[in-house]
Specification:
This protein is an alpha+beta fold. It folds into 2 domains: about 140 residues, Sandwich (Jelly Rolls); about 70 residues, Winged helix-like DNA-binding domain superfamily/Winged helix DNA-binding domain (Arc Repressor Mutant, subunit A). About 45% of the residues lie in helices and about 25% in strands. Strand 10 and strand 11 form a beta hairpin. Helix 3 crosses helix 4, helix 5 packs antiparallel against helix 8 and helix 6 crosses helix 7. The two termini are about 35 Å apart. The mean pLDDT is about 90.
């Protein structure tokens, strides 16, 4: 994957602008669970995921986590360069959910090119708008959907991402994604198991009746 693959407007940049971005591109290989961006305490720069999976999440005052969205192959992470966008007032954490190969562009370099290029600025705004749409969708889920619906949706989404119905994930980890205590997750998973929807084992959750889960919870 090349730098132009991440930017549909690449051919609308000048050769000088392309050269600046290319010359300042840094390649990184990070292991699973690596914290890449720590809220407003650092400005990591623009992250471009070549292969792997990142997770963007926020922390509550009492230390509870909730996942905002995932970043997969070919995705761009702007919140890791939030220092170049003064209007962003909340702190987002970025960590690797899987071993990941990525590129990074320093925030000041990207901002300088963006300030000179209307096509790049418009593209950046579109990416940011898409991410805010993801956050608004999450807010709607939290406000208007029951927890059993959110949990079922999460399990089905995970099975698609992992390509299997046997999910190697702990109840605590699920709670971190959904912003709920582990005990609440455990109670609902046991209910799902009694309903024949999942099978629980240490460190794993197996979806045993996908069709019934989709039908019952409208996911």
């Amino acid at each position: 994957m090349e730098l132009r693959d991440f930017f549909p407007v690449w051919n609308r940049l000048t050769s000088a602008q392309q050269a600046i971005l290319t010359e300042n591109l840094l390649r990184r290989t990070v292991q699973k669970n690596t914290l890449l961006h720590n809220g407003s305490m650092n400005c990591t720069g623009l992250l471009l995921v070549e292969h792997g999976q990142l997770r963007a999440y926020i922390l509550s005052e009492d230390g509870r986590e909730i996942t905002l969205y995932r970043l997969l192959d070919g995705d761009i992470c702007l919140f890791s360069a939030s220092c170049m966008m003064r209007s962003i007032q909340f702190e987002v954490m970025i960590e690797a959910e899987k071993d990941t190969e990525l590129w990074s562009i320093p925030a000041d370099i990207y901002k300088n090119v963006m300030d000179q290029s209307a096509p790049l600025a418009n593209f950046t705004n579109e990416v940011m708008a898409g991410r805010f749409s993801d956050v608004m969708w999450l807010l709607e889920q939290i406000l208007w959907k029951r927890f059993d619906q959110r949990l079922a949706g999460f399990l089905l989404e995970e099975s698609v991402l992992e390509g299997t119905d046997i999910l190697k994930i702990t109840h605590e980890s699920i709670g971190s994604h959904l912003g709920n205590p582990r005990e609440v997750v455990t109670r609902m998973l046991r209910y799902f198991q009694n309903e024949g929807l999942v099978k629980l084992a240490r460190g794993t959750v197996e979806i045993t009746n996908r069709a019934a889960m989709q039908k019952q919870y409208g996911t």
